[in-house]
């Protein structure tokens, strides 16, 4: 006569014997990943890893449901945790790799792709800068129309600039400047949905103001120290505004003249381009804000050094925008693809709701 439960124990042992080879294989793949990373796996092994992770998660649930030994449950739990950690940490590493790749190659490529729009934004800004400088130089009344009286009085009557250092407040000043510049850039990008009218207005206004201020400081022989203040951060800040204006004009063109594409498709395409530009504009403005808060107004840095720094910043940024991703010879084997783990996969401390019976 058989003891009660003997049949269940036999089925459990048979199931363990069938599944053990898969657990061992998962352990081998995890050892390889933990030692040499996901790049050491082929595309086939990556798919195998994902499949084994899902099946082992299900095995853990079955072991718990059928009250398998504590040691087996513990081993399966540890194996599942290791697989979960390897896969999801690997995904995070891939995200960081994608960010680095965008910074190194993606953003320069996007700038070149939007080159026509950026050039148009630059021309609009430059024309209005010339207009502001011309009228400001010819007509003092134009200066009073465009600029606040206190600023004109400071330059005209006291022979001083308003750009001196704010001792003890550099960090706050830098943050405020960066936030203001980012707001202007967001307005220029978002202005594309007004058929570009708001984008063009922002470019024209900023160009007109910089030209008018340039005329003011030129009339009263303060141009050299003023532009020494502007150059270090302006070498990055102004290109960022041109990039934002270009993004807005790209959106405007898709809205007004989508060409052969449907308007929705054209807007989707230009919106993606604008978003990629914006991802690069924000850190650019943060750097410019830090320079404007700490370096540009510093009286301890000679003006000649500030001019040199501005020139270096502009040249380095121009070189950066010309970066082209080096061509890579395609390998014989297909490139490894990221492991996709379905949402239904078990989390280390949980278990799937379904627990199929042992076979």
UniProtKB/TrEMBL annotation:
Record-linked InterPro entries: SpoIIM-like
Keywords: Membrane, Transmembrane, Transmembrane helix
Segments traversing the membrane: 117-137, 182-201, 208-228, 240-261, 273-295, 301-321
Cited PANTHER family: SLR1478 PROTEIN (PTHR35337)
Protein name, as recorded: Uncharacterized membrane protein
Gene source species: Rubidibacter lacunae KORDI 51-2
Source organism phylogeny: Bacteria, Bacillati, Cyanobacteriota, Cyanophyceae, Oscillatoriophycideae
